[in-house]
Design goal:
Shape of chain A: globular
Largest sheet of chain B: 7 strands, mixed
Radius of gyration of chain A: 19 Å
CATH class of the domain at 1-34 and 418-453 and 602-747 in chain B: Alpha Beta
Number of domains of chain A: 3
Strand content of chain A: 25-35%
Structural class of chain B: alpha+beta
Strand order of the largest sheet of chain B: 4-6-2-13-10-11-12
Number of strands of chain A: 15
Strand order of the largest sheet of chain A: 5-6-11-7-8
Radius of gyration of chain B: 27 Å
Helix content of chain A: 25-40%
Number of helices of chain A: 11
Distance between the termini of chain A: 50 Å
Helix content of chain B: 25-40%
Oligomer: heterodimer
CATH superfamily of the largest domain in chain A: CO dehydrogenase flavoprotein, C-terminal domain
Largest sheet of chain A: 5 strands, antiparallel
Shape of chain B: globular
């Protein structure tokens, strides 16, 4: 079967097993896997060179499943993100990641878009990626050599580039279930409420110990650097911070915002200025941390 | 929805006018069956593609099409040489359709190809070799008017300049409206506010890209299917560009997926006609969204100054407004209309309004909903708001203190007949939303707007069918529910159930001439032609009944869809009864009416925007939006409300995020809906509407145009609300988060 969004025929494959997909991916010079095609089809329509074959991963049951194993959630790389946002147990576990997934494109797009595609398209503005970073998600990667598991934050290497080798593709994500009171959050800034691309995105995860102090915090920013970035200085400022009225001290929050602004390496473009992105990165960092703390405190 | 009744002209008890039946074209549109411009496929049809200039300004040194013509599947290639020389008053339209010796903007058509597939047509474009000599370009009015600026058109002398222009420049014309004595007026003022404003070009953003199919015979007769706001205009303009008699072209209207003024002009039609003639086969061309942005529409970017003075008790004493509008590559910005509209809602004795039409290396502007008025309105209404604030007066009271009413002379000349402007101000003042408390970081902005509305030429044919159903034919494309309005007016006139009326948009060969669906004119003018044709039918029906009863026609009256003897001496005859027997009474029943519409009623709107500004990010959320507009008479209130809301939605987009972004080379950087940010549904609250009905004395039902004036106030209403929320007067659009945050961080 062929289809031709850009006017040129492209081979289309629909394997039903991972092994088949691995085989198909390596049996042509320029083949790509895809899930919802919400990036690849627009790219072809806008004139980017079409691959010589497209491999649809949605026919592989494991790749579209969302499972709670008890110790972790396993999310198929090709599962439409609506399967996350409409899964009450998942939303209860990772409301921030669910919110981020619910911001990709629009309702219609989310019936197709996947975490695997959102990550591997490797846009620094991808909405689900800061939330995946913040939750220290792992990617399980398949190839002819079997499978290997790496941290999600080791996948993107630059705009449109990943660390995946030719012949490799992500089959699923693993996120450990929190063992203490924990919360995550994702905030993004777009001029429009939907159908827009983040000017800045901020994903946060906070774990509290039994005494109500922060035992672990992660913060990741989108759209402010060539890849999504963690903000170690902000995380360090939060570690061990005590909460008063459900919030760390103003000094700690100011340090978080300053660290976030400093972690930015943004560009001036039609979507935002460097100055604006730096400022708003600090604002959203603080807001996402506070929201994550509120959820952890309520957990 | 509420309808504010004018007590002087209470609803005269119409049976159909003012009701809300499902629109006749609704089923086809919501089920996807309606055929839009790109939906037609003819046997043997070729696909056309258009080669466009990559440069903002360049001389075309040569075009070599030989390689493209030799490619497999390529059936015809055209350049400017395939058309007669561009000259006369259609010169600009002809050279905008396809460039001859010079390209004037990125996206300007240079050549076109027809081939057996879209892919092959596009591949052929790559094989056309164009040699350009790139020229320096100008993108803004300031660049265009700077000393030593490159001149786009060699012979362009500024019309209306004083003294008369002797050197060519990029200023196409100057208009001026003046009254009283400015110095005296400003001397009387207790407060004077002056600001400089800028706005960016914005696109109409219709959802359907332009599309045309042409089937041309070798001897030069063509049938064209296209979506437009006026198929007669497409015929006339195409004939002018081709140098043909217009009768050689028949244009069949497709459904139209939005136009907002931008589909009143030609782009693809002459290209498709000529490609088809050369190839001997039908040719279809469909624009991409990218092409729509780069080469159609938009409306003007601008720079403006507005200086207005008032007394401390709220009387405006003087207004001095200067407007510089980008026309795009050819003369014709709406600066004249902008100048005429901006002070029209105010009684002001001492004023100057001066406007300049300036060409720049951007796409030629096209009409956009109340062309020009939202732009100048942004400047004037922003300053008015600040004056009201500085004298501590409620913004509605301030406008009431200077309101124009019947008998007042407008700043642009004529005396106003009965208008419903004051009623729109009172409708907002009395609206519960005006009393809604505002939360933290929230603000409220008021602005008003005026638009002339248009009349122009329309024709209609009414055919009674043998079973008493009725076909109404007009030549006005249905862009905002006009089929429904035509059916309702015909039902009211004839006394027939609206479900028995079938309103049709007929092609250029089957109905009399109609000007474009634009200028908010269709319900007034084409509706007037329908009413006239219905009245001719009624005369005919009365005559037939009289014949049947063997009495004089004046003994028969038409009541509730029936012919009745004045003295009640015969059982009444319905339309269906008379139709059934038409062979005995004179044959089929039909009438056609044509008119040049008089009695146009001006439109006024008062609007209130409540919004919230995120003080840390500059993001604006519209909290509530309320609009009151004088419809004269709402024929189908749902579509009147839809027009009100649509104008507001587009105006909010213009205010907050929409803008053309060009790089230093004059290349558009955001030619797609991702980065050209029109509002999406989730960006807007339900827009509250108040239909004010102060009937237009010039129309049988009191109709005024409703399509346009709704987009005039939002730009300033939003800016005034941002000022109310933040204390920051921002005079530059769009009010993007970046611009607002910059203002907030200034401290």
């Amino acid at each position: 079967m062929t289809f031709n969004p850009g006017g040129l025929p492209v081979k289309y494959f629909s394997p039903s097993t991972i092994e088949e997909a691995v085989e198909l991916l390596s049996s042509g010079p320029n083949r790509r896997v895809f899930a919802g095609a919400t990036d690849v089809v627009p790219q072809m329509r806008s004139g980017r060179p079409a691959p010589d074959g497209l491999i649809d991963l949605k026919g592989i049951e494991r790749l579209i499943s969302v499972t709670d194993t008890g110790s972790m959630w396993v999310i198929g790389a090709a599962a439409p993100t609506v399967r996350l946002t409409s899964n009450p147990a998942f939303v209860a576990s990772f409301p921030g990641l669910a919110e981020a997934s619910g911001l990709i494109g629009s309702d219609q797009v989310q019936s197709r878009s996947s975490l695997g595609g959102n990550l591997c398209n490797s846009s620094p503005a991808a909405d689900s990626v800061p939330a995946l970073f913040a939750n220290r998600a792992r990617a399980v990667i398949a190839s002819g050599a079997g499978t290997r598991t790496i941290a999600v934050q080791d996948v993107p290497t630059g705009p449109g580039r990943t660390s995946l080798a030719p012949g490799e593709f992500i089959i699923e994500f693993e996120i450990d279930r929190p063992t203490t009171n924990s919360g995550d959050a994702y905030f993004r800034l777009t001029p429009r409420t939907e159908m827009d691309i983040a000017v800045v995105g901020a994903g946060a995860r906070v774990d509290l110990d039994g005494a109500g102090t922060i035992s672990s915090a992660t913060l990741a920013l989108g759209a402010v650097a060539p890849t999504v970035v963690r903000v170690p200085d902000a995380e360090a400022a939060l570690l061990g911070a005590a909460l008063t009225n459900g919030a760390p001290s103003d000094d700690v929050l100011a340090a978080v915002a300053a660290a976030a602004s400093a972690a930015c390496n943004p560009i001036d473009d039609k979507r935002g200025t460097i100055k604006y992105r730096r400022h708003v990165a600090g604002v959203l960092a603080r807001r996402s941390i506070l929201a994550a703390i509120a959820r952890a405190s309520a957990a | 929805m509420t309808i504010a009744e004018d007590p002087a002209t209470t609803n005269p008890g119409y049976k159909w006018v003012g009701t809300r039946p499902i629109r006749p074209d609704g089923f086809e549109k919501v089920t996807g069956r309606a055929k839009f411009g790109a939906d037609l496929y003819l046997p043997g049809m070729l696909h056309g593609a258009v080669l466009r200039s990559p440069h903002a300004h360049a001389k075309i040194l040569s075009i070599d099409t030989s390689e493209a013509e030799a490619m497999a599947g390529v059936k015809s290639v055209i350049t400017g040489d395939d058309f007669p020389p561009a000259m006369g008053k259609e010169k600009d339209m002809a050279s905008n359709t396809i460039a001859r010796d010079k390209v004037l903007y990125e996206g300007h058509v240079v050549a076109a190809v027809a081939a057996t597939s879209r892919a092959q047509a596009r591949a052929a474009l790559d094989a056309i070799k164009v040699t350009y000599e790139v020229l320096p370009h100008v993108l803004t009015v300031d660049q265009a008017m700077a000393a030593g600026a490159p001149v786009l058109h060699d012979g362009m002398l500024t019309k209306g300049s004083e003294p008369a222009a002797t050197e060519p420049s990029n200023v196409a014309s100057r208009v001026i409206y003046q009254g009283g004595d400015l110095d005296k007026g400003f001397a009387e003022a207790d407060v004077v506010v002056e600001h400089e404003f800028t706005t960016k070009p914005v696109h109409q953003g219709y959802i359907e890209p332009h599309a045309a199919v042409a089937d041309t015979t070798p001897d030069g007769r063509s049938t064209v299917w296209c979506s437009s706001q006026g198929h007669f205009a497409m015929r006339t303009y195409s004939a002018q560009v081709l140098g043909w008699d217009s009768g050689r072209i028949r244009v069949i209207p497709a459904e139209i997926g939005g136009g907002f003024g931008g589909k009143t002009v030609i782009y693809l039609e002459p290209l498709a006609i000529k490609l088809s003639q050369k190839a001997g086969r039908p040719v279809k061309i469909v624009m991409s969204r990218d092409e729509v942005f780069r080469a159609t529409g938009p409306t003007s970017g601008s720079r403006m100054t507005a200086k207005i003075g008032a007394t401390k008790d709220g009387k405006i004493t003087a207004a001095d407004v200067h407007l510089w509008f980008e026309a795009g590559a050819y003369a014709g910005s709406p600066v004249g209309a902008a100048a005429m509209c901006c002070l029209a809602p105010y009684k002001v004795e001492n004023f100057t309004i001066e406007g300049f039409d300036v060409v720049v290396n951007k796409p030629r502007v096209a009409a956009y909903r109340a062309p020009g008025a939202p732009i100048s309105g942004f400047a004037v209404e922003s300053v008015m708001d600040e004056i009201a604030k500085s004298i501590g007066m409620d913004p509605i009271e301030f406008r009431l203190a200077n309101v124009v009413e019947e008998g007042d002379t407008a700043t642009y000349g004529p005396k106003f007949p009965r208008i419903g402007y004051k009623e729109t101000l009172e409708a907002i003042k009395n609206h519960p939303n005006y009393q809604e408390p505002l939360g933290p970081n929230q603000g409220r902005g008021i602005a008003v707007g005026f638009w002339f509305n248009a009349g122009m030429n329309s024709s209609a044919t009414v055919n009674v069918n043998e079973d008493g159903t009725v076909n109404v034919l007009t030549g006005s494309p249905d862009i905002g529910g006009s089929r429904a309005s035509m059916a309702l007016m015909a039902a009211e006139e004839l006394g027939v159930d609206v479900a028995r009326i079938s309103p049709n948009v007929a092609d250029t060969a089957t109905v009399g001439f109609n000007d474009v669906t634009g200028g908010s004119r269709t319900t007034l003018a084409t509706g007037g032609a329908v009413v006239n044709a219905c009245r001719m039918i009624i005369e005919d029906l009365r005559g037939r009944a009289a014949k049947q009863w063997d009495v004089a026609a004046d003994q028969v009256e038409w009541v509730d869809g029936q012919a009745q003897m004045v003295d009640g001496s015969q059982p009444p005859l319905s339309l269906a009864d008379i139709a059934k027997g038409w062979a005995r009474t004179g044959g089929p029943i039909a009438a056609s009416a044509s008119l040049n519409a008089r009695g146009v009623g001006a439109g006024f709107s008062t609007q209130m925007c409540d919004l919230e500004v995120d003080p840390e990010t500059g993001v604006v959320t519209i909290v509530r939006y309320t609009t009151a507009q004088d419809a004269g008479r709402a024929i189908h209130p749902s579509y009147v409300e839809g027009q009100f809301q649509g104008g507001v939605a587009q105006g909010i987009g213009w205010a907050l995020n929409e803008e053309y972004v060009h790089n230093a080379d004059g290349v558009m950087e955001n030619a797609g809906f991702l980065d050209y940010r029109m509002p999406v549904a989730s960006d807007l609250p339900m827009i509250d509407t108040v239909i004010v009905e102060v009937p237009n004395p010039g129309h049988p039902y009191g109709v005024r145009g409703v399509g346009e004036v709704g987009i005039v106030p939002p730009l300033a209403a939003v800016a005034n609300a941002v000022d109310s929320a933040t204390g920051k007067r921002i005079c530059h659009l769009p009010l993007s988060p970046i611009r607002i945050l910059d203002a907030l961080l200034e401290g």
